[in-house]
Design a protein that fits this description.
By secondary structure, the protein is mainly alpha-helical. The chain has a single domain (16-203), classed as Jann2411-like fold (Orthogonal Bundle), CATH 1.10.3300. The chain has seven helices and six strands. The strands form three sheets. A two-stranded antiparallel sheet has the order 1-2. Helix 1 (16-33) crosses helix 2. It is globular and about 65 Å long.
Length: 204
């Protein structure tokens, strides 16, 4: 399977499932583990209720309002997902550390029982998921996100799992540009970095 047909080229979304799970990993890493964003320190949520609210708010802001699965999340699930997010974060911006990061990802896949599996309802087409049909919600999310990241890395596209290069920002992102040239989490950080570089040149 290749991630190429997804949004990177604008062709048929054969791998939209992979892309959506990578974006879910981005959301959880940013909402549950980030300690700085856009030049300012931030405090990650520390309680299950706060983490649950952060996940729901993040999905709503990304255009994915809470569905049945998100609504089924509990505060205890959110605490476990924060641990999963912390394990997934090293995949982003890994650079030469990718082999070490991948070893941690392999352990996560085993622990959460990742396995290719066809899921579907009687009146809907089958879809390929990466968790057992009987997996709990946290294991299902972890297996799906971990496998999606592994697939991106496994086709030589690890560079698309980016970390913001602006100062005082540890947000991560999935780079879907054609030439994998994205360096910042958003335009505000890009502008901050340009302004900082300009001031440095003026001082020099």
């Amino acid at each position: 399977m290749t991630i190429d047909p997804w949004r990177i080229t604008g062709q048929s979304e054969i791998d939209s499932y992979v892309g959506s799970r990578v974006e879910l990993a981005v959301l959880l890493a940013n909402r549950l583990t980030a300690t700085s964003a856009h030049g300012r320190p931030v405090t990650p949520p520390s309680s299950g209720d706060e983490r649950l609210a952060a996940i729901s708010a993040g999905r709503a802001e990304s255009g994915r309002p809470p569905g049945p699965l998100t609504s089924a999340l509990t505060a205890a699930d959110a605490d476990r997902l924060a641990e999963v997010a912390a394990e997934l974060r090293p995949m982003f911006g890994a650079g030469p550390r990718i082999v070490e990061a991948a070893a941690g990802l392999n352990r996560l896949l085993v622990r959460h029982g990742a396995v290719p599996n066809l899921h579907g309802d009687p009146d809907r087409p089958l879809v390929l998921a990466f968790h057992r049909p009987d997996a709990g919600l946290v294991d299902a999310w972890a297996a799906d996100m971990g496998t999606a990241l592994a697939m991106v890395i496994g086709v030589g596209q690890a560079a698309r799992l980016g970390a913001c290069q602006a100062g005082n920002c540890c947000l991560v992102f999935f780079d879907t540009t054609r030439n994998a040239s994205r360096r910042f989490c958003d335009l505000s950080c890009q502008n901050r970095a340009k302004a900082s570089a300009y001031r440095a040149r003026r001082r020099a």
